[in-house]
Amino acid sequence: MYELLREEGYIDWATTALFYASMHVVEAWLIKAVGTRSGSHGVRAQRMHRLGMPRAIFDAYDSLRKASELARYRDWSSVLDADCLSALHEGPYRLICEHLEAPETITPQ
User: Fold this and answer.
1) Is the pLDDT of residue 106 over 80?
2) Is 109 domain-assigned?
3) What is the pTM of this model?
């Protein structure tokens, strides 16, 4: 989805898709740790802190969340562009995927 939206020039929707893809990676990790879905962004953030998720992962997730909110609710056109989108994909998104999809790298506490 992200790739298609990016290729078609829908920077706002691609940014949102990137955040929600990262959210599902984080949520899968949390479900493995606690056995239930978070149910809300607030509960998810609390669980991330409580379970000892590294600060770098939390910050990466938060930057994607903020970019998604900017894309959905504010005038993003002067801030988000294709370069910014690529940076979000190659930085925060990749960091989350690389660390949370490899279960031996982070163990829930």
Assistant:
1) no
2) no
3) 0.86
